[in-house]
């Protein structure tokens, strides 16, 4: 009976790539982040704070997955801007704050699209 370590070494030497990572990043995460950001912007323009926050949170989740695979500063900046937008819009009915949050989301969208 082989030990666990020897089994892993044997599998790696045979080319099975137990710990292999993809050669390229999956662009679906970034595309999903862009789509959710656009949805958030649309909700923000209609002054729907709850829907804005929901879509912005989803955009942040997708962008975090994208930055994990492709560590690019533009995605990090976009995440930071989306977090600021969520902070502005969460728990408010103020039209000015929702408009400011929508503006931050538009800036984040520019950052996300710059990566494409």
TrEMBL record:
Q: Does the keyword Signal feature in the UniProt annotation?
A: yes
Keywords attached to this Swiss-Prot or TrEMBL record, sorted alphabetically, are:
Signal
| Pfam families registered for this protein in UniProt | SMBP
The residues forming the signal peptide are: 1-25
| Protein's UniProt name | Small metal-binding protein
- Source organism: Methylocystis iwaonis
């Amino acid at each position: 009976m082989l030990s666990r370590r020897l089994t892993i070494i044997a599998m790696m030497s045979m080319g099975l790539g137990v710990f292999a990572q993809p050669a390229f990043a999956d662009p679906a995460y970034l595309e999903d982040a862009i789509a959710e950001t656009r949805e958030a912007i649309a909700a923000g323009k209609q002054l729907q704070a709850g829907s804005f926050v929901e879509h912005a949170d989803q955009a942040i989740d997708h962008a975090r997955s994208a930055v994990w695979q492709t560590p690019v500063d533009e995605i990090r900046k976009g995440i930071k801007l989306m977090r600021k937008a969520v902070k502005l819009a969460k728990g408010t009915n103020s039209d000015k704050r929702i408009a400011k949050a929508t503006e931050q989301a538009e800036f984040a969208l520019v950052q996300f699209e710059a990566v494409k």
